[in-house]
Amino acid sequence: MIPITSLNWGILQIIYLIIIFLSGFMITYLILPPLIKYMKKKGHVGNDIHKNEKPEIPESGGISIVVGLIVASVLSMIFFPVFLNILIIFLLTIILTGIIGFMDDYIKLRSRYKILLTIFTGLIIFIAIYIEFITISSPTLPFLGTTRLTLIYPLLIPIIVAIFANTVNMLEGYNGEGSGTCLIAVCFLFVCALIWNSAEALILTIMAIAVLIPFFHFNKYPSKIFPGDIGTLSMGVLIACIAIFGSLEVPTLCVLLIHVFNSFYVIFSLRGFFESSEIQIIKADIILLEDNRIKASSVKGAALTLPRLILAKGPLSERELVLNFYAISIICGFFAIITTLLMVYTSGILNLLFIFFCILIFFIPTLIILKNFDRIKGIIVLMVIMLICAFLYFLFVDLFIMKLNFADIDLLNIKVPVNILLSFIIIIPGLILWYFITIKYFWIQINKIKKENHEMNSV
What does DSSP say about strands 409-411 and 316-317: parallel, antiparallel, or unpaired? Predict the structure, then answer.
């Protein structure tokens, strides 16, 4: 990671960043109207399944995102040659992801193949690190600092890329849902980049915001175009690259907690990665009413999803449901900023009193959001509990586990720190407990629907 402050940027560099932003924005914006017409003409459309009239909406709008990122990346290489190698790898990763997504839009790859292909995409980054074409830092954790995963972390990168790509892909299906939550995520990551002093994250988030704003304009309710898998996978990989190249792994995980929660519920209930459209075919999580409102399914075998959990308290219109997603995403953004501040504190620059003051500041808008979006209170409470437990875990590891004096294990010429290994082992009981708590909460909400339905039928 290159610190922003070490580059001695002036007015000229700020102008370069503005040009990059405007170029990505304008290219994406100008591509979309003709792309919409072209997809309609070629019949590459999908039915908007959350409306009774099932209107046909052009697919593969994510092409505009990929093209916009290509243009913005090339300009970034010209203006900021110090990042040339990283931008080349970023560009190759995005292009390959776009090809995989476009293939999936046309031939509908099975989930397992999609996961394998996105792992292959992440291999580009791994190979670049292995041949020393680029260098990246090991993740920095609150209280622990930079982890000693110099050799292990690059091996995990293809898996991280695949998880991020498919996690974002799974929370898509409603007008403006995926693009809106991702736009909110990268806006908060932009702030995190400034706090963490990460030049790579700054440039990548500027490019991301530039292409996502115009796409969201055409994708929001009522959608004029759908992203397709080329869009959702590209957005996921884009955010993964911001995390990896910008050393913002933990804040990125926080800002994507809404996607993580949804994926967790889907994987638990369906035993695999499935998209929203596939869920509707296999085990529909929601029911479309005659007035175009959406209600949660009360069928026991229906898929467990975040939309179903939000709708457990009663039907909503599609637009209202998506606004709940945005509300959760904003609060997740607050979590990401607080996490970044704790990372800075760990490096010895900030004090805890300042962070506590920031938490109080974020507490006010959080209360306002929860007051206006009552349905998400339980979800946010679960997220807060998880984050507090995670921070306590990091503190415990720092105070006790890292103090133990063990020799590293030599595993196939890879040095594995025993302290890190122990840290992973002791987290397993906590994950199992969190697993039961979240699933229990989900079924409490779903059982309320059943009880209310039974009472209404009895009257």
Answer: unpaired
Q: CA 311 to CA 167: how far, in whole Å? A: 21
Name the pairing type of β-strands 409-411 and 140-141: unpaired
Strand partners, 288: 294
- The gap from C-alpha 323 to its chain's centroid, in whole angstroms, comes to 17
User: Comparing C-alpha atoms, which of 19, 147, 128 is closest to residue 84?
Assistant: 128
Q: How many domains does the chain have?
A: 1
CA 230/CA 238 separation, integer angstroms? 12
Fill in the amino acid letter for 253. L
Dist CA 353 CA 104 (whole Å): 50
Q: Provide the token pair at 309.
A: 């959990």
State how far the alpha carbon of 139 is from the alpha carbons of 147, 154, 247, 262, 387, in Å.
6, 11, 6, 24, 17
- Indicate left, alpha or beta for 260 from its phi (over 0: left) and psi (-120 to 50: alpha): alpha
Neighbours of 302 (CB within 10 A): 19
The first and second tokens of residue 191, run together, are: 């702030």
The pLDDT tens digits of the residues spanning 348-393 come to: 888 888 899 999 999 999 999 999 999 899 889 988 988 888 888 8
Q: Is 285 helix (H, G, I), strand (E, B) or coil?
A: coil
Instruction: Report in angstroms the alpha-carbon separations of 267 from 112, 167, 224, 263, 329.
Output: 13, 10, 30, 6, 21
Nearest residue to 26 via CA among 179, 278, 213, 223:
213
Around Cβ 273, how many Cβ atoms within 10 Å?
20
Domain that holds residue 393: 4-458
**Angle at 406 (CA atoms; ends 403, 411), nearest 5 degrees:** 130
Neighbours of 372 (CB within 10 A): 11
Residue for token digits 């203006």? Answer: 79
Q: Is the dihedral of CA 16, 20, 21, 25 positive or negative?
A: positive
The tens digit of pLDDT for each residue in 218-276 reads 999 999 999 988 999 999 999 999 999 999 999 999 999 998 888 888 777 776 666 66
